[in-house]
Fold these 4 entries.
Entry 1:
Amino acid sequence: MQQQEWKFGAHQIRHEQQDVLVAVFSGMLNLDDMKRAVEIYSQVAKAGPYFMIADIGNSQLQAEARRYLSDNSKPEWFKGCVYVGADMVQQTFGKVISLGMFLTGKTEFKTEFVKTMDEARAWVEQQRRANVRKSG
């Protein structure tokens, strides 16, 4: 059976639904933390693309961790990404990652910033409905 939850340091990632991965980051994320997170993202993507909900309101990324995430994430892993609790600096970085995903081959990479986890889940549902309308 595929693993559903990972904990490393003060951080937690859980596979909530087949196409939803929720990451809750607390405190500073260093390079080792980000390597572990990207490894999990890659592993989960083997079953297909998913929506990423990242609660980053209580976290910070070290510069080398930010570079690693940007350099090693693949757009085909994700259906979209929603960040919960991001401040202005985190929003700017999230937009840069989205632009990078778009430029490396995905025709559209949806990114959203919200204040609460409920808003994040609602965004994922809205994206699912939009995808059904497009394909149906």
Entry 2:
Amino acid sequence: MNLPIVELLGFIAAGLSSCSFIPQVYRVYKTKSMQNISWCMLGISILAGTLWLIYGFYLENSILIVSSAITCSLHISLTYFKFKFKMRLQEYPKY
């Protein structure tokens, strides 16, 4: 694999950007708490990731496609947890 330095930098940047949400998803999964995660942030992030994914397909840029897909899936996981843990709190109210 002989990547030009600019593509290598793009690959590293995309990988780090995508992976930056893994600790948040893990923390939410372990703590079962989404209180400090904004619905607005999740919506904007999913929209941005989807647009980056479409743009990546348009450019036929595999690095952009993969990183956008990973980032989008992590944001969708956070949205799922937000719904799941909100429902759990409503089912079992604290007294």
Entry 3:
Amino acid sequence: MHMNKLKILMLGPSESGKTTIANYLSESINIEEAGPPRPTQGVRIVEFELPNINVNGKNTNIDIELWDCSGDHRFESCWPALRVGVQGAILVCSPTTTQVATRELELLYNYFVSQPKLSAKQCVLFYNCTNDSDDIESLTLSSTFSKVSQVAINLKSGGNRLKIDFSNYITSVLQAINRYA
């Protein structure tokens, strides 16, 4: 079974750590090498292969096209183009962005998940914890997110856990796509 690339958008407020997560998942950096956040201009596409994903009982390799999208609203005019052919959305926020995050995530979810008619299974929320005392419970989201998986991630202490969470997420995207294919 061979599939085309999976187009996954990574979205969220500026400085929530999207690029670091994208780089880590695609294995282009070690976390120790991650410098201070630099704003992404528009979008950056990271392509990599995710091995051994279980699809309908068979292990397969999936090509991922991870679109690391800027959180800067200057680039909002690009949103319609970003949304074309989207198969999944990863929303990212961090303790430093929780004040703006609630409204921002709602807007992004509406535009990139609800409007293109993705299911909640095709979306995941990564709460990017920068230290161990950060708690996902401090994130108060609307009922819109009641069906969306919300995962606290900590790259410094739990990078491998993030890879597992990401693989699980990709599996749920594939299941959702196959159901509607």
Entry 4:
Amino acid sequence: MKFTLLKTIALGSLLTCSAAAMANQGDYKLMVIEDSVTAAPAFEKSFNSCALTVESKNYEEAEAICTQAIALLKQSHGPRLKVRELTSFALSNRGVARIKAQKDTAGISDLYEAVQISKNSLVTHNLTRAKKELSL
């Protein structure tokens, strides 16, 4: 069921990255992994669960799951650039969860860190969106 849901809501691939974004143009972008050769299955499950839990508006649980994904990624031995990009995506997802949970300072901090790691357009979009929403 989750696999079908991921395929349904995934909007497209990012370069050769195995991630996709979900959300409409004006909203935050949540990244999911479609096919990962970089990440361990435990990381992929945690990463995707984070995005799906944010999407289902369970922000406290999403924050915990995203934090777990970030911790698992730190242990990953994949290609360094890919690990950095996925870390950026996980931080961005957690930042969105935190902002939606009204933990604005922690959320914006995650988004700034995500942009520092990777200036990917989806991550940058989330930071811009948060700054606008929080009137920064």
